[in-house]
Prior knowledge:
alpha/beta, TIM Barrel, Lyase, Ornithine Decarboxylase, Chain A, domain 1, eight-stranded parallel β-sheet, six-stranded antiparallel beta barrel, 25% helix, 23% strand, elongated
Amino acid sequence: MVTMRLDVPPPALRLGFDPDALRSNWQALDKLSGRARAGAAVKADGYGVGVRQVVPVLHAAGCRDFFVAHWSEVVDVLDFAAPGSISVLHGPLGDADAAFARACGVKPVINSLEQARRWLAAGGGRCDLMVDTAMNRLGLPMAQIGEECLKALEIDVLLSHLVSAEEDSALNAVQCARWQEVCAALPHARSSLANSAGIALGSAFHGDLTRPGIALYGGVPRPEMAGLIRPVVHPQAAIMQVRTVAAGETVGYNATFTAPAAMRVGTIALGYADGYLRCWSGKGRFHAGGVELPVLGRISMDMTVIDLSRAPHLNEGDWVTANYTLPEASAVTGLSQYELLTVLGRRFGR
Ligand SMILES: *Cc1c(COP(=O)(O)O)cnc(C)c1O
């Protein structure tokens, strides 16, 4: 078969991305980390923002530690950052993972004695070690930190992960004390405990390296961070069709919206398949030129209908932007700020 070079036209939906806001958020979190440096969690395609546009901006800002979850996520980061600055949180789940880490020089995060032995058997080298201090999810149980085989590990970052950092939970201090105990017991180059919210808990939680994720991308996990963090992404879509709906007519699937009077409406190229989920039905808002444009009726798979009554200047081909400031969007939809970002689909131009 002959491979043709097709000139695919640009999509009618795009994810507006503000690199200055991302840079400013990283710098604010780095500063808030005190004597610790801020790294960056860039797993899940940079929380849906697009890892290939996120990592170069963070790297240029001075970030030198990048965390992904899966081995498949390493390749995109490797194009912009040194192998030794990349950590894979899931660790070596099999021999192929360990061999891959050795071949490209990225660090596995060791999560169990079995992973430690697997890594050492593959030849070992610099790695990180995750100790579970309360999550009971992934990581070496506290009871095993004295095990002999750990002594052979060359631990760069010794880390643990907070369960409830976004809340004023008693678990925060408990985990902090346990992590300090772990740090005293195991030789390591750098220590790390705090995610975004943990950074705001104070210097006892900082160690040498912090690992913000959500706040880099505009999430506000704790109220004291509100003034520091700027929105980074803006879902935008083009108006494909404009029509006037007569009084008493309905809009969209299941006729959940009835026009109280004749009104001008627009259909935009964004739907739940793009991550603009059905929970926005009748609740979402778009804007253009300072005018608010409410969502009418149900969100469809590939389309949403908005009220253009107050925007007579808007026409087919014009772009509108979703109100998608994460704390507010979370309050409106009940989705977490993390979900709001990571559901954003693959059809967005990034
Ligand atoms: C995802 C993740 C982070 C980042 O957490 P945020 O709450 O998004 O700041 C930090 N550490 C680990 C181990 C993670 O899995």
